[in-house]
Amino acid sequence: MGEIILVGSGWNSFLFRAEINSLVGYDKIIHPRLVTISNDSNINNLSNAALLDDILFNAKIINDYNISEREISLLIHKWTENNLPKGSFAIRTRKIGEETISLSSSSIEKEAGELIVSRYNNVDLETPEHEIVVILAGLEDQAFHKNKSDISKPVIIWGLRKKLPNKNKFESRNPIERPFFKPVSLDARLARLMISLSHKPDWFPKIIIDPFCGTGGIAIEAIIQGIDILASDLDPVMVEGTHKNLVWSKGEGEHTVKKCSIDNIVQLWGRQENCSFVFDPPYGRNSWKSDNGLDIFLQALKAAHSINPNGTICTMLPTVPEFMLEEKSDKYLVMGKKWEEIESLINSTGWIVSLKYAIKVHRSLARLILVCHPSH
Predict the structure, then answer these.
(1) CB 186 within 8 A of CB 175
(2) Which of 19, 68, 179, 346 is deepest in the core (most CB within 10 A)?
(3) Do residues 68 and 11 lie in contact, with contact meaning Cβ atoms separated by under 8 Å?
(4) DSSP run (H or E) holding 78
(5) Taking Cα atoms as reference points, which of 234, 202, 236, 127 lies closest to residue 373?
(6) Three-state DSSP state, 172
């Protein structure tokens, strides 16, 4: 039996792997955007992943990228003898990576299809019963993120596609499509990713708490996947707008939205089991460059620990783009202070940082995604 391979989107390969690691855990990296998992017992956990493009079963991996289209087609044909069930099929070939492999996708699809077709398997390009996905994975661009695990060689894989029942259509939920919109609204894909990162392979939150809900981006992505949301904001306009957006989203999770400052969040929600704190602080406001902004952030961490000391946190903080290089990152500024100072303050609230990763906003600003787990 072949491998089970997960194919990540091109949005960010490191965060794709971090998301998969949070949801199910992976076995090995065969390319920055390709990881393997050992079994399919918890594969349904992936149905809400933000950065997952494909799941391929019985997959074959070859590292000889100097191979010809004809040779690949013959190998795929041989593979189908034990791995393609009866029924109609289609071959879908795609290239990923910045430096793509110089093979013809259409030639592979045509030649392999001609070899495979039989009285048991006919070609149907529109609604096939089975899809053979061929990935020609070239080198990844290393311009911004110098991560050791992103160093790779080209690889070619193929396998049977498992259709994702809830494949996300983020465009339909982008901020400008919502009935209530503000320029500070969080992108739907990033909101979904943050929720995924708050998971652990053996633990899923049943409730998400967002104490700075803004226009409700995180709240929407929570209830769409059936997770209840407890949302709040100090601004009554945001509270009303979030409620409007949640009704519009028609999510299955229950939702409660209240006007509340971070000072009173523990009294508002009380003790909660099986919950995570997921929030996007208002980093664009001037207060987040001051000690007052840092105090608000630390208050949120302390509140999270009081509400559920066994939960998780996923949040973002403003930093400098240089943090993305990961070299001497302890010295770079986060919220106007050195990261090593910020991390020490986080630790003092009962949490430890299990993941940190910076994504670029513009030339002078990046956002540092943080995942925190209990220190006990």
Answers:
(1) yes
(2) 19
(3) no
(4) helix 69-83
(5) 202
(6) helix
Pick the CATH number of 170-374 from 2.60.120.10, 3.40.50.12780, 3.40.50.150, 3.40.190.10: 3.40.50.150
Measuring CA to CA, which residue among 294, 314, 313 is closest to residue 374?
313
Domain 3-162 is found in CATH 3.30.2130.30: yes
pLDDT at 117: 98
Nearest alpha carbon to residue 84 among 60, 49, 108, 52: 60
> DSSP per residue over 34-51, as a string?
EEEES-STTGGGGGG-SS
DSSP 8-state code for residue 140: P
Provide DSSP, 236-247: HHHHHHHHHHHH
Element (H, E) at 93: strand 89-96
Mind listing the pLDDT tens digit for each residue in 289-347? 556 789 999 999 999 999 999 999 999 999 888 887 766 677 788 988 999 999 999 99
